[in-house]
Amino acid sequence: MHYYLGEWRVLHDQQENGEHDLNEAKAGCPKNFVEYGAAKAELKRIKSASPPMQKK
Hints:
- By secondary structure, this protein is mostly helical.
- The protein has one domain (2-48).
- The protein has three helices and no strands.
- The mean pLDDT is 91.
């Protein structure tokens, strides 16, 4: 459940809450579940994404 909620939050500009849910999914899902691998990959993607440009 945390994985899907985390993805929804990231897509709806709730980055901090989304990351929290994705970390919960990574910590709580069995490693053979697709959600574990997907949460791990999404967290890696979020961390490697460049910060948004600020408007002047």
